[in-house]
Amino acid sequence: MESATYGKKLREEEFLINMGPQHPSTHGVLRLVLKMEGEFIRELTPHVGYLHRSIEKIAENRTYNQFMPFTDRIDYCASMPSNLAFAVAVEKLAEMEVPERAEYLRVIMVELNRIASHLIWLGTMSLDLGAVTPFLYAFREREWILDLFEMTCGQRLTYHYIRVGGVSRDIPPEFEKSCRAFIKSFRKKVDDYEAILTENPIFLSRTKGIGILPLDLAKDLGASGPTIRGSNYEWDIRKVEPYSVYNKFDFKIPTGKNGDVWDRYMVRIEEFRQSCNIVEQALDGLPESDTIRAKMKAVFRPPAGEVFSRIEAPRGEMGYYIVSAGDKKPYRVKIRTASYNNLQCLGPISIGLKIADLVAIFGSLDVILPEVDR
Amino acid sequence: MGIATATIKGFWNLILGLFTTGKYLPRKSVTLQYPDERWNMPERSRGVVVLLSDPQTGELNCNACQVCMKQCPVHAINVDQIKDPETKKRYPGNFTIDNTICCFCGICEEVCNFDAIKLTGKYEFSVFNKEELIYNKEKLQELGRDVKYTPRKKKKASDEDEKTEKKEAKPAEEKSETKTAGEKTESNPEEKDS
């Protein structure tokens, strides 16, 4: 049978593709509406809101201590920084003094959680790009960190460890030895990841020069964390606005050069090493004390007022804006999460690229969807 | 960089990657074959919530002060307080924990003044029927029979209020009789407030 199009010119037109919400590379439920011209992306619209749980509204109906377990669920890959962000904000509101040992324990836990969170990113991103081995290695190391968390606070994912005024429990005696052993072995493991990925020709061709995020665009869209550091800008809340006891530690802020996928990868790889340094310094300087939580009244009522405070979470700035009416429940809580702003960068930088590159760029932004929707 | 250099560099890095994976090939496996092998849950593990009983008398430590019910962030706990008219003891009439919504945050264990409720390292509790996940008092007590715990002498300083300190001083004499009898007179400040 003769084809209907035989001898005629093939029709060309733009067409729409729905990528997600169940696409494996979207790490959750993100729906991207792509306007395609052949293989190339002409327009990209992210549709968010599939994971909305109205956590900000829940906060208005819970006391400050009761809301803490909900902060775990904002960013489930890095619950400790989410806890810390809320605790720091409430402590600023109530002008509370936190025991020094608790501050050191917080730093240790947050930095270990930063490593664990970046390990998930490394595993899933390399899996999206077709490298299966780093995924297995990353989750093997993450297991050790989760064991450390489990022996300290009893949970492996939703820790609920950092509280308003301190931490919930002191570390068990075997923690320090195990933690030092982990840091020692992890430094070698980072070299292993680099040996597999960093100079691998397949990985390089998928990442070098792809998804370049210019610095002014990153600033305009409010990008933060490793995303903006990859675009050669030294922006880290731990240095810019030190909270907790971060001003006592010696660490560097790694930056990239061009702002492509590979630079963002290298920034996170370097952050593994810097986090290891911070954990070691914190373990060395851990003061001996029995008090790990500031004295609080059974019914905690911070004074009326409003406060905004931010911390450096693994994905960037995480801030809490709390309005208190002097009641035991907050009047309003607004959560600023890094993933929401970082996700906005995805549209402009992936125009003109192919879908396969979109997967690489999305992986490198390290967006986590529950944090976008809250 | 010429094509020849790039090719050599590419091959060298592929070999380097293969060498790294090969390094782990003869090593011991890190995975556990779950139903056959099991791991030891740490002491602080936060799993299924149980009610603890006095090891001597076998009675529940709970005196139904309802603090855990009021402090639970997801309202998973429901306690009915019953007062015995003769002995004037308070005890829970019905104590249910809804495991379908429990988030295992451990707040109930922290606010409890009487070592009555605890999160344990038990984790296998899947059932076919959703309603079976709502545990009643008997089931919670049965689960807590074999759980070891160290009786808490005094409440943690961090959670303590000045009001509680004063009130604890009074019934200290009664405490020598039995544990539940001494504590029933003590009212928690949170109870009134919330």
Structural class of chain B: alpha+beta
| Integer-rounded radius of gyration of chain B | 26 Å
Shape of chain A: globular
Helix-residue proportion of chain A = 40-55%
Which outline of chain B best applies? elongated
- What is the total tally of β strands of chain B? 5
Tally the helices of chain A: 15
Provide the succession of SSEs of chain B. Answer: HEHEEHEEHHHH
Mean pLDDT of chain A: 87
CATH topology of chain A: Cytochrome-c3 Hydrogenase, chain B
List the helices and strands and how they pair.
The complex is a heterodimer of chains A (374) and B (194).
Chain A: E1 15-19, E2 31-37, E3 40-47, H1 55-60, H2 64-72, H3 79-94, H4 100-128, H5 133-153, E4 162-163, E5 166-167, H6 175-197, H7 201-207, H8 215-220, H9 226-229, H10 237-240, H11 261-284, E6 305-313, E7 316-324, E8 332-336, H12 338-344, H13 346-349, H14 355-365, H15 369-373
Antiparallel strand pairs in A: 1-2, 2-3, 4-5, 6-7, 7-8
Chain B: H1 3-24, E1 49-51, H2 67-71, E2 77-83, E3 90-98, H3 107-111, E4 117-119, E5 134-135, H4 137-143, H5 162-169, H6 179-184, H7 189-193
Antiparallel strand pairs in B: 1-4, 2-3, 3-5
Short note summarizing the structure:
The complex is a heterodimer of chains A (374) and B (194). Chain A has 374 residues and is an alpha+beta fold. Helix content of chain A is 47%, strand content 13%.
Question: Would you kindly provide a written description of the structure presented here, covering whatever features stand out?
Answer:
The complex is a heterodimer of chains A (374) and B (194). With 374 residues, chain A is α+β, with helices and mostly antiparallel strands. Chain A has helices at residues 55-60, 64-72, 79-94, 100-128, 133-153, 175-197, 201-207, 215-220, 226-229, 237-240, 261-284, 338-344, 346-349, 355-365, 369-373, and strands at residues 15-19, 31-37, 40-47, 162-163, 166-167, 305-313, 316-324, 332-336. Chain A contains 15 helices and eight strands. Chain A has a three-stranded antiparallel beta sheet. A three-stranded antiparallel beta sheet of chain A has the order 6-7-8. In chain A, strands 4-5 form a two-stranded antiparallel ribbon. In chain A, helix 3 (79-94) runs antiparallel to helix 4 (100-128), helix 6 (175-197) packs antiparallel against helix 11 (261-284) and helix 11 (261-284) runs parallel beside helix 14. The mean pLDDT of chain A is 87. With 194 residues, chain B is α+β, with helices and mostly antiparallel strands. In chain B, strands 2-3-5 form a three-stranded antiparallel beta sheet. In chain B, strand 2 and strand 3 form a beta hairpin. Mean pLDDT of chain B is 75; it is low at 155-194. Chain A binds chain B through residues 62, 65-70, 133, 137, 140, 143, 150-155, 158, 160, 165-166, 168-169, 172, 192, 195-197, 199-201, 291-299, and chain B through 6, 9-10, 13-14, 16-17, 19-21, 23-24, 30, 42-46, 71-73, 103-107, 110, 119, 157-161, 163-164, 188-190, 193-194.
